[in-house]
Amino acid sequence: MTPTTSTTAVKPCQALEDVAIFLETLVEILGEMQELVILQQDLKKLEERARYENLTEEISILEERIAADKKNVSSRYSALEQEKETLKSDCKDCEEGQDLLEEIDILLQKMREAVDILTEQKRGGGQYLDELLKEFARLRKECIDLKQKTEDIIKNLNAGSHPPNDNT
Fold first, then answer.
1. How far apart, in whole angstroms, are the C-alpha atoms of residue 130 and residue 128?
2. Structural domain spans, the chain
3. Taking the chain (168 residues) in consecutive chunks of 10 residues, what is each chunk's mean pLDDT?
4. How far is the C-alpha of 85 from the C-alpha of 92, rounded, in Å?
5. Which pLDDT value is given to residue 23?
6. Which of 27, 94, 105, 159 has its CA 20 to 30 A from that of 45?
7. DSSP codes of every residue in 139-151
8. Which own/partner pairs from 2-10 qualify as long-range (CB within 8 Å, at least 24 positions apart)?
9. What pTM does this model have?
10. Contact criterion met (CB below 8 Å) for 43 and 66
Protein backbone atom coordinates (compact mmCIF):
# COMPACT_ATOMS: atom_id res chain seq x y z
CA MET A 1 0.00 0.00 0.00
CA THR A 2 1.51 3.31 -1.06
CA PRO A 3 1.12 6.28 1.25
CA THR A 4 -1.24 8.92 -0.09
CA THR A 5 -0.43 11.51 2.53
CA SER A 6 2.78 12.54 0.82
CA THR A 7 0.88 14.87 -1.51
CA THR A 8 -0.99 16.53 1.33
CA ALA A 9 2.03 17.08 3.57
CA VAL A 10 3.27 20.63 3.83
CA LYS A 11 6.18 21.06 1.43
CA PRO A 12 8.65 23.86 1.94
CA CYS A 13 8.79 26.57 -0.63
CA GLN A 14 11.37 25.30 -3.14
CA ALA A 15 12.84 28.77 -3.13
CA LEU A 16 13.84 28.32 0.53
CA GLU A 17 16.37 25.73 -0.58
CA ASP A 18 17.60 28.26 -3.14
CA VAL A 19 17.83 30.86 -0.36
CA ALA A 20 20.03 28.48 1.66
CA ILE A 21 22.30 27.97 -1.37
CA PHE A 22 22.37 31.75 -1.92
CA LEU A 23 23.43 32.28 1.69
CA GLU A 24 26.16 29.63 1.38
CA THR A 25 27.53 31.49 -1.64
CA LEU A 26 27.34 34.73 0.32
CA VAL A 27 29.36 33.15 3.15
CA GLU A 28 32.01 32.12 0.59
CA ILE A 29 32.17 35.62 -0.89
CA LEU A 30 32.50 37.18 2.55
CA GLY A 31 35.38 34.80 3.24
CA GLU A 32 37.01 35.92 -0.01
CA MET A 33 36.55 39.53 1.03
CA GLN A 34 38.26 38.82 4.33
CA GLU A 35 41.16 37.27 2.40
CA LEU A 36 41.29 40.34 0.17
CA VAL A 37 41.56 42.63 3.17
CA ILE A 38 44.39 40.48 4.53
CA LEU A 39 46.17 40.79 1.16
CA GLN A 40 45.82 44.55 1.37
CA GLN A 41 47.27 44.49 4.87
CA ASP A 42 50.20 42.47 3.50
CA LEU A 43 50.65 45.08 0.78
CA LYS A 44 50.80 47.84 3.38
CA LYS A 45 53.51 45.93 5.24
CA LEU A 46 55.48 45.44 2.01
CA GLU A 47 55.20 49.13 1.22
CA GLU A 48 56.59 49.94 4.66
CA ARG A 49 59.53 47.60 4.07
CA ALA A 50 60.02 49.09 0.60
CA ARG A 51 61.32 52.23 2.22
CA TYR A 52 64.44 50.27 3.11
CA GLU A 53 64.53 47.52 0.46
CA ASN A 54 63.80 47.23 -3.24
CA LEU A 55 60.50 45.34 -3.26
CA THR A 56 59.07 46.76 -6.47
CA GLU A 57 58.46 43.36 -8.06
CA GLU A 58 56.82 41.85 -4.97
CA ILE A 59 54.61 44.90 -4.57
CA SER A 60 53.64 44.81 -8.24
CA ILE A 61 52.69 41.12 -8.06
CA LEU A 62 50.60 41.67 -4.94
CA GLU A 63 48.89 44.74 -6.44
CA GLU A 64 47.97 42.71 -9.54
CA ARG A 65 46.54 39.92 -7.42
CA ILE A 66 44.55 42.37 -5.32
CA ALA A 67 43.16 44.06 -8.45
CA ALA A 68 42.14 40.68 -9.92
CA ASP A 69 40.58 39.56 -6.63
CA LYS A 70 38.68 42.85 -6.30
CA LYS A 71 37.30 42.40 -9.81
CA ASN A 72 36.31 38.79 -9.08
CA VAL A 73 34.63 39.64 -5.77
CA SER A 74 32.81 42.57 -7.35
CA SER A 75 31.46 40.48 -10.24
CA ARG A 76 30.42 37.62 -7.93
CA TYR A 77 28.65 40.13 -5.70
CA SER A 78 26.83 41.64 -8.70
CA ALA A 79 25.73 38.16 -9.77
CA LEU A 80 24.41 37.58 -6.25
CA GLU A 81 22.37 40.77 -6.40
CA GLN A 82 20.77 39.51 -9.63
CA GLU A 83 20.13 36.11 -8.04
CA LYS A 84 18.44 37.85 -5.11
CA GLU A 85 15.94 39.40 -7.54
CA THR A 86 15.15 35.93 -8.90
CA LEU A 87 14.66 34.66 -5.35
CA LYS A 88 12.27 37.53 -4.62
CA SER A 89 10.15 36.42 -7.56
CA ASP A 90 10.37 32.76 -6.56
CA CYS A 91 9.36 33.52 -2.97
CA LYS A 92 6.38 35.75 -3.76
CA ASP A 93 3.98 33.08 -2.44
CA CYS A 94 6.22 31.92 0.40
CA GLU A 95 5.89 34.00 3.57
CA GLU A 96 8.96 32.44 5.21
CA GLY A 97 11.01 33.14 2.09
CA GLN A 98 9.85 36.76 1.98
CA ASP A 99 10.83 37.24 5.63
CA LEU A 100 14.27 35.75 5.00
CA LEU A 101 14.76 37.92 1.93
CA GLU A 102 14.04 41.03 3.99
CA GLU A 103 16.84 40.00 6.35
CA ILE A 104 19.08 39.24 3.37
CA ASP A 105 18.37 42.73 1.97
CA ILE A 106 19.62 44.31 5.19
CA LEU A 107 22.70 42.08 5.19
CA LEU A 108 23.44 42.86 1.54
CA GLN A 109 23.13 46.61 2.16
CA LYS A 110 25.71 46.42 4.95
CA MET A 111 27.87 44.26 2.74
CA ARG A 112 27.58 46.67 -0.22
CA GLU A 113 28.80 49.53 1.97
CA ALA A 114 31.82 47.49 3.07
CA VAL A 115 32.50 46.32 -0.51
CA ASP A 116 32.42 49.91 -1.74
CA ILE A 117 35.00 50.89 0.85
CA LEU A 118 37.14 47.87 -0.03
CA THR A 119 37.07 48.33 -3.80
CA GLU A 120 37.40 52.12 -3.85
CA GLN A 121 40.06 52.56 -1.18
CA LYS A 122 43.48 52.85 -2.79
CA ARG A 123 45.90 53.89 -0.12
CA GLY A 124 45.45 55.01 3.41
CA GLY A 125 46.07 54.05 6.96
CA GLY A 126 45.87 50.44 8.03
CA GLN A 127 43.06 51.25 10.46
CA TYR A 128 40.33 51.07 7.80
CA LEU A 129 41.60 47.60 6.83
CA ASP A 130 41.37 46.39 10.43
CA GLU A 131 37.83 47.75 10.65
CA LEU A 132 36.86 46.15 7.32
CA LEU A 133 38.23 42.81 8.42
CA LYS A 134 36.09 42.97 11.57
CA GLU A 135 33.04 44.06 9.57
CA PHE A 136 33.38 41.21 7.05
CA ALA A 137 33.81 38.73 9.91
CA ARG A 138 30.67 40.08 11.60
CA LEU A 139 28.68 39.99 8.35
CA ARG A 140 29.88 36.46 7.66
CA LYS A 141 28.65 35.35 11.10
CA GLU A 142 25.28 37.02 10.50
CA CYS A 143 25.06 35.24 7.17
CA ILE A 144 25.92 31.86 8.73
CA ASP A 145 23.25 32.44 11.40
CA LEU A 146 20.70 33.35 8.72
CA LYS A 147 21.58 30.23 6.74
CA GLN A 148 21.04 28.13 9.88
CA LYS A 149 17.69 29.84 10.43
CA THR A 150 16.74 29.03 6.81
CA GLU A 151 17.71 25.39 7.26
CA ASP A 152 15.68 25.22 10.48
CA ILE A 153 12.62 26.62 8.69
CA ILE A 154 13.03 24.05 5.90
CA LYS A 155 13.37 21.28 8.49
CA ASN A 156 10.23 22.46 10.31
CA LEU A 157 8.25 22.68 7.07
CA ASN A 158 9.43 19.23 6.01
CA ALA A 159 8.31 17.90 9.38
CA GLY A 160 4.88 19.43 8.80
CA SER A 161 5.14 22.00 11.55
CA HIS A 162 5.31 25.74 11.34
CA PRO A 163 8.33 27.76 12.43
CA PRO A 164 7.99 29.11 15.96
CA ASN A 165 6.75 32.68 15.90
CA ASP A 166 6.23 33.19 19.62
CA ASN A 167 9.93 33.68 20.41
CA THR A 168 10.31 36.95 18.51
1. 5
2. 12-155
3. 39 79 92 91 89 87 91 87 88 86 90 78 65 91 94 86 49
4. 11
5. 93
6. 27
7. HHHHHHHHHHHHH
8. 9/160, 10/157, 10/160
9. 0.74
10. yes
